[in-house]
Write a structure and sequence with these properties.
Helix content is 35%, strand content 14%. The protein has 561 residues and is of the alpha/beta class. The strands form six sheets. Strands 6-7-8-14-15-16-19-20 form an eight-stranded parallel barrel, surrounded by five helices. The protein has a five-stranded mixed beta sheet with strand order 1-11-12-13-2. It has a three-stranded antiparallel beta sheet with strand order 3-4-5.
């Protein structure tokens, strides 16, 4: 019996060693051949902590660290190993080793514009911006952006299709114009440019599925209309700082309090902490590590990997990776963030230029409300061979701060920058890597306002020369019963609409909802919580936004705006 017992122990030990060796070999093979993971040589799978980067500089921001059970870090679009096959690797507790790992390193400045080949500054044959009319009363202008999948009339509203779909609306309903009650055709061709989010598409369905379908245009069956995708950075940094509303309303304390003690704040229980761990977000020079909200996997998002993902999606316009700092931030930290964003955007651009694939890339100008940093960001990024300019980062706590920023900033985007000089052309060439090396006509490129497209903001942004702007505002308020009209918003849940027979939402609107249904019926659908209400309301609000932009274009053409 004793011999049998010893023999059994030997067999079990041998089996365990073989399984461990097999797992190690398999991981080594995956690491060497996986298109994303092979670029990350310092990754280790640990049951207690992921030690991913060999150093974390003082300028790196560890927003939250992970001490939970981890299955590893996924590259963009990759699949993490099953936890049953993970090797348990505890980080070294040696203090000198930890100290060496966290030794500060000097961050290098972003690359000088001269490092980009002169040919990259040449006009793209597949993408260009045509200015039709410049207003004589303001910076407003009418133009057309020509893309491989169609024209974008500007100024124009960009609807948000987060997961490759508009909330509650079929593209066939959004992409058409209409005829109003007087038989007059709409002055627009429906929804032209649509914005999809890389972050959400990475997590579901993933790059392989979309690329296998032939790209987003074919996957969404929207083959003759242009698309724009972002880098995913906005959503990732929202995990750290909360939504814009949360960050502003709590002075930036909501997420900081929620991560304290590895606990988070639950809105469902009145704000009291729960024991669940919040999604970790770690920012280093390499990129940003975050946890999927769907299944808890960890992902590493780098400037290169987000561009590769957007190449798989095949959108007409793509966005480089940028860091989105909160509204409440120390000035030095904001300056460091802008510098890191410049390095990330330059890396994104370099990756993009390796294989352009008939895609345009917009830079994202940062700097928060700091005029000094905004100008620095503008001078540097407009000197690189980007195809358009997006305005991002913190844009103020309200419409007033947004308009104040745009009124100061947009005239600078109307300047010509001469070779070897700064935007003021004062002969003082700075040595801070912001001076352009080729002539730049900033007016010749389209400008996009990221994430803001409510009606009051649109009117101010258009006047200041913004060409396109995106927001989920129209579809979001539609789901809650708010409908947009030329006479102001109406809240359909109000009982005063219950007997408005034969009265459309807006008598001058040509959308299919206004042509077929009256307010009384829509009131009933909303009160009855019928799902079709969301569709009918969203169709109307999207159509209204495109009508609004068509009216703005006409006012500019007549020099009334």
């Amino acid at each position: 019996m004793k011999f049998v017992h010893i023999t059994g122990l030997i067999l079990m030990t041998t089996t365990t060693m073989i399984m461990a060796l097999t797992t190690t070999i398999r991981r080594h093979v995956v690491h060497q051949h996986h298109p994303i993971l092979r670029r990350v040589p310092n990754y280790h799978h640990g049951r207690r902590r992921i030690v991913h980067f060999s150093t974390l500089s003082d300028s790196d921001t560890e927003i939250s660290s992970s001490t939970a059970d981890d299955d590893g870090i996924d590259g963009v679009g990759s699949v993490s190993s099953d936890s049953s096959n993970s090797q348990s690797t505890k980080p070294s507790t040696n203090k000198s080793s930890k100290s060496r790992r966290r030794q500060p390193k000097q961050s290098s400045p972003p690359p000088h514009p001269s490092t980009f080949h002169p040919s990259t500054y040449s006009p793209r044959p597949f993408f260009h911006f045509e200015i039709i009319h410049q207003s004589t009363k303001s910076l407003a202008r009418v133009g057309r952006i020509h893309t491989p999948h169609g024209i974008i009339d500007t100024p124009g509203y960009v609807a948000v299709a987060t997961n490759g779909a508009l909330k509650g609306v079929d593209f066939r309903d959004a992409d058409v114009g209409g005829v109003n009650s007087k038989g007059v055709m709409s002055d627009h061709d429906g929804q032209q440019l649509v914005f999809s989010n890389t972050y959400h598409l990475l997590l579901q369905p993933g790059t392989e599925v979309v690329e296998g379908a032939g790209g987003l245009h074919k996957f969404m069956n929207r083959r003759d209309r242009p698309l724009i995708t972002d880098s995913g950075g906005f959503q990732v940094f929202s995990l750290a700082y909360g939504s814009v509303h949360e960050e502003l309303s709590t002075g930036g304390e909501l997420k900081r309090a929620s991560t304290k003690g590895n606990r988070k704040t639950s809105h469902a229980n009145g704000g009291s902490p729960t024991t669940s761990s919040p999604p970790p977000v770690k920012v280093t020079e390499e990129g940003v590590v975050f946890r999927s909200y769907r299944d808890g996997r960890k992902f590493l998002l780098t400037p290169e990997s987000t561009v590769q993902a957007q190449k798989s999606f095949g959108a007409d316009i793509i966005i480089p990776l940028d860091e989105l700092p909160p509204y409440h931030i120390d000035p030095k930290a904001l300056g460091d963030s802008v510098e890191r964003t410049h390095r990330w955007e330059a890396r994104s651009l370099n990756e993009h230029l390796k294989n352009v694939k008939e895609q345009a890339m917009y830079c994202v100008i940062h700097g928060g409300l700091s005029r000094e940093l905004r100008k620095k960001s503008m001078d540097y990024l407009t000197s690189l061979p980007f195809d358009g300019y997006a305005i991002g980062g913190s844009l103020g706590k309200d419409g007033g701060e947004l308009m104040e920023l745009l009124e100061w900033m947009m005239p600078l985007l109307n300047e010509n920058v001469v070779e070897g000089g700064d935007s003021n052309d004062d002969g003082n060439d700075d040595d801070d890597n912001t001076a352009p090396t080729v002539p730049v006509d900033r007016r010749s490129k389209p400008r996009h306002l990221l994430g803001i497209a409510d009606e009051p903001s649109i009117l101010g942004a258009v006047k200041n020369g913004i060409d396109t702007m995106d927001s989920c505002y129209p579809t979001r308020i539609a789901r809650h019963g708010t409908l947009l009209t030329r006479k102001g918003k109406i809240h359909i849940k109000s009982g005063k609409h219950s007997k408005e027979y034969g009265v459309p939402i807006d008598e001058e609107c040509g959308c299919s909802t206004c042509q077929r249904y009256d307010r009384a019926y829509l009131w009933h659908l909303f009160k009855a919580k019928e799902p079709v209400f969301m569709q009918l309301a969203a169709i109307h609000n999207i159509h209204y936004m495109n009508d609004l932009m068509a009216r703005q274009r006409q006012l500019i053409l007549e020099d009334k705006l």
